[in-house]
Design brief:
The protein is mainly beta. The chain folds into two domains: about 180 residues, Acid Proteases (Cathepsin D, subunit A, domain 1), CATH 2.40.70; about 120 residues, Acid Proteases (Cathepsin D, subunit A, domain 1, Beta Barrel). The chain is about 10% helix and about 40% strand. The protein has five helices and 21 strands. The strands form five sheets. Strands 3-12-11-20-21-13 form a six-stranded antiparallel β-sheet. A six-stranded mixed barrel has the order 4-5-10-6-9-8. A hairpin with a 2-residue loop joins strand 16 and strand 17. The radius of gyration is 20 Å and the shape is globular. Belongs to the peptidase A1 family. Keywords: Aspartyl protease, Disulfide bond, Hydrolase, Protease. Its main location: secreted. InterPro entries: Aspartic_peptidase_A1 (IPR001461), Aspartic_peptidase_AS (IPR001969), PEPTIDASE_A1 (IPR033121), Peptidase_aspartic_dom_sf (IPR021109).
Length: about 300
C-alpha cells in the first residue's frame, strides 16, 4: 500500500495522502527525517501527540536493534536541546528536542520539532523505531506543535481530518489517510460521535460492560491476561458496543486471539491508563479492524462505519 491521491467529500482532494501501514499488534508506517532523508518505522498513536525516534546518542539496548537518527549527517537539523521524557503503556523514552524536515509520504513538513532518544526502556522487540502521535496538542511536550497541527496550520492538508483503515490481513492493505477520507473503504454512512473532552480522542459509551464481559465469556486471569477455552470461542456472544445511540457489534473472532502456544485470550484489556475514575476503554485495533474510523479535528468528532 503506497501513497496515492484520494478523493473525498469536496471533490478531488489534491493535497490529501494515504500511507500504507503494516498491521499486526501496532500500526506501523514509514516516514523519513532529515536531509538527505533517514528512514524510520513509526507507530501511529492517537493516544499521544509527540514524534520521537531513536538517535545516535542513545546507548540503550532498543537503540541497537532499531534505526537511529544521526543529526550530524542532516543539513537541515537544528538542535533545541530541551529535554524530553515520554512515558507510554509499553515503555519510556528520555532524550532531547530537535527540529528537522519530516516526510510522511508526499507531505513535507519542514522544521518539525521531534524527540531524539538518549535512553529507551522496554522497547527492545518493538516492531517500530519510534512513535508518531496524532493526539491533541494539549498532550504534546510543552512549547512544541504536533505534526498534524503543523500540517493543518500550514494548509499542507486540505481538511483537518485523518482516518485509519485497518486491514485484517497482517501484512498489507492497512492505511492512514491524512487530510481527507476515501469513502470506498467503508460501507454505509459514517456515524459521528462527539469527542467528550478534546484532550484525548475520547468518546462516551453508554453501556458499562467490562466485568460482566469477563464473567460472561468465562475468562480467567493468566499472566495478567484473560484466558478463555479455545473450544468455547464459537459459542461466545457477539458483544454490542452502544456509542451515541448506534450499536457496533463485535463478534468473538474479533475479540479473542490465539497465541503461538494455541491458548486463547480475550482482547479486552483492563488498561493501566488511569484517566479518571470512570471506566476507560481503549477501542483498539480489534474494534478498528471492523470499523473504519475518521478523526475530525475541525469538529472534534470521531466517525465510524463498518470497514470494507
Amino acid at each position: 500500500g503506497g501513497w496515492k491521491v484520494i478523493s473525498g467529500d469536496t471533490g478531488h482532494l489534491e493535497g490529501s495522502s494515504t500511507l500504507g501501514i503494516e498491521g499486526g499488534q501496532a500500526y506501523v508506517g514509514n516516514i523519513s527525517i532529515g536531509t538527505p532523508p533517514q528512514q524510520f518505522k513509526v507507530v501511529f498513536d492517537t493516544g499521544s501527540a509527540d514524534l520521537w525516534v531513536p538517535s545516535t546518542y542513545c546507548d540503550s539496548v532498543p537503540c541497537y536493534t532499531h534505526n537511529v537518527f544521526n543529526p550530524h549527517v542532516s543539513t537541515t537539523f537544528r538542535l533545541s536541546g530541551m529535554p524530553v521524557d515520554l512515558t507510554y503503556g509499553s515503555g519510556r523514552m528520555v532524550g532531547f528536542l530537535g527540529y528537522d524536515t519530516v516526510r510522511i509520504g508526499k507531505l513535507i513538513d519542514m522544521g518539525q520539532p521531534f524527540g531524539l532518544s538518549k535512553s529507551q526502556y522496554g522497547m527492545e522487540h518493538a516492531p517500530f523505531d519510534g512513535i508518531l502521535g496524532l493526539g491533541y496538542p494539549s498532550l504534546a511536550t510543552q512549547g512544541t506543535t504536533p505534526i498534524f497541527d503543523t500540517l493543518k496550520r500550514r494548509s499542507l492538508i486540505p481538511q483537518p481530518v485523518f482516518a485509519f483503515y485497518l486491514s485484517s490481513q497482517k501484512e498489507n492493505g492497512s492505511m492512514l489517510m491524512l487530510g481527507g477520507v476515501d469513502h470506498s473503504y467503508h460501507k454505509g454512512k459514517l456515524q459521528w460521535i462527539p469527542v467528550s473532552q478534546p484532550h484525548y480522542w475520547q468518546i462516551t459509551m453508554n453501556r458499562r460492560v467490562v466485568t460482566a464481559l469477563r464473567r460472561l465469556i468465562g475468562a480467567r486471569l493468566v499472566d495478567n491476561e484473560y484466558a478463555v477455552s479455545c473450544s468455547y470461542v464459537a459459542r461466545l456472544p457477539t458483544i454490542v458496543f452502544s456509542i451515541n445511540g448506534n450499536n457496533y457489534p463485535l463478534p468473538p473472532q474479533a475479540y479473542i486471539r490465539k497465541n503461538l502456544r494455541g491458548q486463547c485470550f480475550s482482547n479486552f484489556g483492563g488498561g493501566t491508563e488511569n484517566m479518571s475514575h470512570s471506566e476507560t476503554w481503549i477501542l483498539g485495533d480489534v474494534f478498528l479492524r471492523l470499523y473504519f474510523s475518521v478523526y475530525d479535528r475541525g469538529n472534534n468528532r470521531v466517525g465510524l462505519a463498518p470497514a470494507v
